[in-house]
Amino acid sequence: MMNQDFANAAFEWTDNFKLGHAAMDDTHQEFVEIVNRMLECPPEELAQHLDEFAVHGESHFSQENTWMQETDFPSMKCHIDEHAAVMKSVHEVRQLLADGKDPAIARGLAAELAKWFPGHADYLDSALAQWLVKKSQGGVPVVLRRNMSFKS
């Protein structure tokens, strides 16, 4: 059952999010799916999905941070700082829930993540994807998009 306050806030994976780096695209799809579950789940499941996101975020951002460090990515500091800011917010919201605050705060975080992600992916992650593919393949990625959305 979807919380009506966020009924129009669905966050769905679309080919427009593809960057041409398979591992990054797969991780980004998982990011979108978890955030969408946080937006649509009943209030009693929010803490569980927030915990799931925390595990995902640590792994997701750690992997990207490692790629940047290993390849001396030029915009590394700004990118890593954004990851750290997201995880700081995630940990703060988890603590608020542990302190008995309204679970809706986790849904608010999910809504902010849904707003944040497209810009982050379009600018910082797309540059990283191009950098990684160019380093390993000698050229920028080719991305085929069907302009279709898929809801899991």
From TrEMBL:
<dbReference type="InterPro" id="IPR016131">
    <property type="entry name" value="Haemerythrin_Fe_BS"/>
</dbReference>
<keyword id="KW-0479">Metal-binding</keyword>
<feature type="domain" description="Hemerythrin-like">
    <location>
        <begin position="22"/>
        <end position="131"/>
    </location>
</feature>
<dbReference type="InterPro" id="IPR012312">
    <property type="entry name" value="Hemerythrin-like"/>
</dbReference>
<keyword id="KW-0813">Transport</keyword>
<dbReference type="Pfam" id="PF01814">
    <property type="entry name" value="Hemerythrin"/>
</dbReference>
<comment type="similarity">
    <text>Belongs to the hemerythrin family.</text>
</comment>
<protein>
    <submittedName>
        <fullName>Bacteriohemerythrin</fullName>
    </submittedName>
</protein>
<dbReference type="InterPro" id="IPR012827">
    <property type="entry name" value="Hemerythrin_metal-bd"/>
</dbReference>
<dbReference type="InterPro" id="IPR035938">
    <property type="entry name" value="Hemerythrin-like_sf"/>
</dbReference>
<keyword id="KW-0561">Oxygen transport</keyword>
<dbReference type="InterPro" id="IPR050669">
    <property type="entry name" value="Hemerythrin"/>
</dbReference>
<keyword id="KW-0408">Iron</keyword>
